Amino acid sequence: MSPEWQRFDRRAVPVSAIFMTGVAVMAGVPSAIGLSDISVAVALGWVLPGAVLVVVAGTVAEWLRLRYSRYRVGPERVELHTGMLIRNRRSLQRDRIRTVDVTANPLLRVFGLVSVRIGTGEHAEKGTVRLNPVTRATGDELRRTLLDRAAEPVADGTLAVFDPGWIRYAPLSFVAPLLGASAVGGALNVADWVGLSGGLVEWTIDRLGGLGLIGGIAVLAGVALVLGVIGALGLWVEMWWSYRLDREPGGTLRVRRGLLTTRSISVEEQRVRGVDLVEALGTRLAGAARVDVVATGLATGAEQNKAQHSTLLPAAPTELAQRVAAGILREPVSPTEAVQLTPHPVAARGRRLRWALAGVLAGEFPLVLLGVLLTEVLLHIAWISALVAVPVAVALAVDAYRSLGHGIHGDYLVARSGSVRRSTVALQRRGIIGWTVRQSVFQRRAGLATVRATTAAGSGAYSIRDVAAGRGIEVADAAVPGLLTPFLEEPPQQLDL
Fold this sequence. Notes:
Mean pLDDT: 85
Number of helices: 15
Strand order of the largest sheet: 6-5-4-10-9-8-7
Structural class: alpha+beta
């Protein structure tokens, strides 16, 4: 890249104008419908000037941003200067850059532009520089230039490519019921905007009145679930269409995906500290898992969830997921598959059963209380739902106990836990920088402990849950010899009499 100061592409101005027009339409239509009862002319008189003002203001603001923004990629630093009245100058050291993500929404794609996010892995926003927009060629050149720091060439190749058959796992996640509930709520909001919410409720009651309360609820739940499945399929296609995972020359793992909004996420191999094989309950029953990378310098928290920086393989057949995990770690067999996990004490099962039943009780108590105070219908709903919830909770608790396990395989510490979301993490032992041993009052009585391996990668800590207290200390000491030694109680020395 040239060390000279560069301007952003001016095609961002028409992009902003089109976007703000869409915003104005989305905000103006409900307002116009709400005012149409008074007069159509009055509605247009209020809405149109406001819409024009929004479009003009947004376009002018984007033009001013471009006019007073510039960036430079030098041999040592990436610099960004922005602002007209308040100048904002941001600078990143090139040797601290960990990620270069290239994203293009549909509007940017039409104009041949992309947005480039350059990050150092710090949690604060100060560790990020966003160059928006630049041409696609410039974005690809930035990604290659800023991440190509390998001391020697490494073998490149394709680790996984898109398979349309993976879409069958999309409805098996918990996204489907959430999207279904959102769709029902959205329909009620739209009906309320146009003043038809009462009519929609009455129409629904008329159609389902003959089915009874339980039957009506079941039909509504079924409709919501169908809408959720359709939404989950659409969301999966948008996020993972044209997926490809490559190991590129220079030591970079690159994920490309997206239908309307394309994304290119790059992870330096030298920052990889392990993998996490994630099996949601539905996908696990279908024999599938996804692969997340445990690496330093990735976005965390809300930003990670939004962009899914750590996911290198969506839900796919478990056999393929294990092969991809092995490929990411450059191992013949993934540690998550090769290690024989040590089970945890029976006391851990009791803890999970008690927590599961307490959760059911907490959910049923409000229904019982309201049923006593208001109507017996809620009491019937409470005992019927309890008949379903108690066996399900017990089954999940037993499954969660069976999922518990830990082990050491070569250079990796492997830990597994969870039922609704089972996670099997293989963490490089050299990436562990500390240990935290936690015991609640109930854990102490049961002789259990939760041992957490602290690392600078991924979520920051990975736990061996409800392991026998002595065994947990032994595993921690074996994984990183000497790290816990100063904190262990030494046996009393015998005195020579």
